[in-house]
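User: I'm preparing a small set of examples for a lab meeting where we compare how different chains pack in three dimensions. I only have the primary sequence for this one, and I'd like the structure in token form so I can line it up with the others. Please keep the answer compact; I'll paste it straight into my notes.
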Amino acid sequence: MASFRPRNLTEFFHILLRRKLLIGFITVVVLASALIVVVRIPNAYDSRALLVVSGLQYDMQTSGSLIAAVTEQVTSRSNLESLIKRYNLYGYQPEMKIDPLIDGMRKQVKLETKYRADFNGFPESFAISYRSDDPATAKQVVADVVSLFDKANEVMAKHAADEANALKAEIAEVEAQLSQAGRSRRYSAARSSAASRTMGNLERLRAERNAISSSVETLSDKQYMLERQISDQRRLISQQQQIAKSAPPSEGRGNGAYTALLKRKVDLEAQYQNYVTLYTDKNPRVIQTREQLAEVNQRIAQLNADGEQARVIASSPEAQELRTMERELARLETELDVVRREISRKNQAAAVLPAGSSSPIPLTLPAGGGSEPVGATLEFDTLRGRYDALMEKQNSIKKVLPSAGAVAPPLFQVVDQPNLPQSASAPNRKMLMLVGLLLALAIALAFAAALEFRRMFALYDHRDVEYYLGVPVLALIPETFTPAERLEVDQVARRRRLTVLVLGAASVPALALLLNSMGVFQLLASK
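Assistant: Understood. Below is the structure token output for the 527-residue chain.
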């Protein structure tokens, strides 16, 4: 038949009841196969270790470089290859390709990093874990990974000790130079005291004169700039005055009553012109409109007599802009007057200063008595700054190396040593069996649906007859068998059941091999 009869939920439920033995049988077969696969999955044991990064390291740049190097070394090809060969991981044999084994081990070795928020992402701790089917092997692999961090600690300690020794030698050298520069500075200060007293007044006078001259030049430039601004402002004010005088009054300016009367006048004039074209002069509407227009004109004339139109013009935006420009001109003129008075005071102060020598002050002391150069002070200050920087760096190293013979605390401190796992961390067999049950039910329902699909297009019961033929069914005649026929039917049914049981039992190992080759349960077990 080209179509099939629609079924309701009750009929689908009856189909499930009719096929319950088939669904149950297939579910048991698939579930048994899944059980074989799940049971054969080996237990996995996780060994873990926790390391923290010391917060007392003085050289953050060196520490950061060392941390980046050791974390990359953990999952490097050379390290993983050596671990695989050392412990024969994943059934390694010399003739096997090692690249797939390395990729698999990268997934098993996990390095989780926790970062600090107060050191711009500087690492705070490292959690190392490795999963293996042998707990002792898992512990050994994690211990070998932790040994990489121990080697990094040795490198950092050697670097700190070498730098401390280098700083000690450099500080001794700078101290010797400081001692010599200090003696030169004291001798230079003793020889230059007399010269400094005689030249102090001259230098002060020259500094005052130079300061006054520089100030006068600055004020002169400012005076010139203000004069140019005042000239431009006056020109702009003259133009704005012409604009304000010629600007006609517009709506919305000045007194509200005056503006309303102007608007009312325009409306009445338009209404009057409209009435004149439609009615005669004797019409009441024309007369009333003419009287209203005369009254409005009279009130506008009164307001003009009171100066309202002048106030409207004075309140226009052009007039307001003109007043703003006039206030700016007054401010510029006041500022110019202040600058002129300041220049006058500076000139008077310069006039009362005595004339001084224009020759530059010598950089060396006058000859006589083997004088030392004034540059000794600069050299002493330079050495002093270098000495302070070295001492500050040495103090930061002392936080790591409290005494000369002390060993630097490790950069990586092991908080939790690699443990020997006592119980398996994977697989979760209950979860895997639940997945197997769902898979078995799905396969059983799919198989039952495939068998029932062909019945959708055939006549099997009275509902099919009523739907396809369109006639009602009056009675149902049950199928009857003779005792010999019933015996034969039972024997055929028993043979079919036995055949199905044999096929189901034989399909269990085959289906287990198929599920094992697909690796679905192994993938879920590794999560």
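A couple of notes for your slides: Residues 9-41+427-525 form one domain. Confidence is low (pLDDT under 50) at residues 356-372.

User: Perfect, thanks.
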